[in-house]
Design a protein that fits this description.
- The protein has 321 residues and is of the alpha+beta class.
- The chain has 3 domains: 121 residues, Efflux pump adaptor protein, beta barrel domain (Elongation Factor Tu (Ef-tu), domain 3, Beta Barrel); 62 residues, OB fold (Dihydrolipoamide Acetyltransferase, E2P) (Beta Barrel); 107 residues.
- Helix content is 42%, strand content 26%.
- It contains 6 helices and 14 strands.
- The protein has a 6-stranded antiparallel beta barrel with strand order 1-10-13-12-11-14. A 4-stranded antiparallel β-sheet has the order 2-9-7-4, with no helix packed on it. Strands 6-5-3-8 form a 4-stranded antiparallel β-sheet, with no helix packed on it.
- Helix 2 packs antiparallel against helix 5 and helix 3 packs antiparallel against helix 4.
- The longest helix is centred in the middle third of the chain and has 34 residues.
- It is rod-shaped, with a radius of gyration of 43 Å.
């Protein structure tokens, strides 16, 4: 919670001074103060219409309990799109690592078998034509055609054998790096989309009291605007003022107790802050005659189990131990 305005602090100190003047006659002096709450404002970084408000004022909630949900049609669609793009990028990366599909490899093997058969036929025909040329049965041109066909068929066999070796290879290293980078970028986009979708649903960061709800169901909530204010038990504290003669002997960790109307037994508290800056009540020029008006702010916190007995703004009387 923000510091109290100077006018409010002056008023609190004025009441304290009156109390100090009136409680000197008792055996145990007490010091007036009030309860203050450090509220936790739960807000969403994205805007949207309030679809569900799961809590009400005055309700106690556990840590991570759902508080509200904003309309999330756009965020859900963005998440689904990012997930589909991630799956596509991963599929391309996996495909480049495995080479061609078995069916494609089978096609090339069948083509190789055909080419090998053709090469065998053309090689046998070349042998026959060479023999026929010596006997005068074929012309020189026909022999040249047989040789050319045999060379072409042999080259086709070598080509298809090389193609089968290429089919078993993964993608080129540069292509693999590019596809890996695309997959990583898709993962990051999906994580961002899932985070944005999660922000449309508010949950309690800690157990505590629902102090207030700031929107009604169906209203438009601007980005960063709190929807629920929580008051965890550890965020309840007591502020009271003591004179300078008392403030000098106080230390952090010192025990005290506070009383208030309707609280029942005194509530034990532990001092965790003693101001080093003096305050005057009412504002006067410092002198020896007015030093009794000098007071110091003290802050103390109750145990979480006792915090529910105290309410922000409630006047209390503190007693030191």
């Amino acid at each position: 919670m923000r510091p109290l305005p100077l006018v409010r602090r002056g008023l609190a100190a004025l009441l304290c001074a009156a109390a100090l003047a009136s409680c000197g006659g008792g055996d145990t002096p007490y010091y007036q103060g009030y309860v203050e709450g450090e509220f936790v404002y739960v807000a969403s970084p994205v805007a949207g219409r309030l679809e569900t408000l799961a809590v009400r004022r005055g309700q106690q909630v556990a840590a991570r309990a759902p508080l509200y949900a904003l309309e999330a049609v756009s965020e859900t669609a963005t998440r689904d799109q990012a997930r589909a793009q991630r799956d596509a990028a991963q599929a391309r990366l996996d495909d480049s690592a495995t080479g061609k599909r078995p069916e494609e490899v089978d096609v090339n093997r069948a083509r190789l078998a055909q080419a090998e058969a053709a090469a065998q036929r053309s090689a046998a025909q070349l042998v026959r034509d060479e023999a026929q040329l010596r006997a005068g049965g074929v012309s020189r041109g026909q022999l040249d055609d047989s040789r050319a066909q045999a060379r072409a068929d042999a080259a086709r066999v070598r080509e298809l054998r090389a193609q089968l070796l290429v089919d078993a290879l993964p993608g080129r290293s540069a292509l693999r790096r590019a596809e890996t980078a695309e997959t990583q970028a898709a993962d990051a986009a999906l994580a961002q989309a899932e985070w944005t979708l999660a922000q449309t649903r508010g949950v309690a960061p800690a157990a505590g009291l629902v102090f207030d709800t700031l929107y009604r169901q169906g209203e438009w909530v601007a980005a960063g605007s709190p929807v629920v204010s929580l008051l965890p038990p550890g965020n309840v504290k007591v502020r009271f003022f003591v004179p300078a003669a008392v403030a000098g002997g106080l230390r952090a960790g010192q025990r005290a107790s506070v009383r208030c109307e309707g609280c029942g037994e005194p509530v034990p508290v532990r001092i965790d802050y003693v101001s080093t800056q003096a305050e005057y009540t009412p504002p006067v020029i410092y002198s020896r005659e007015t030093r009794d008006k000098l007071v110091y702010l003290v802050e103390a916190r109750p145990d979480p189990a006792d915090a529910a007995r105290l309410h922000p703004g409630q006047p209390v009387e503190a007693t030191l131990q």
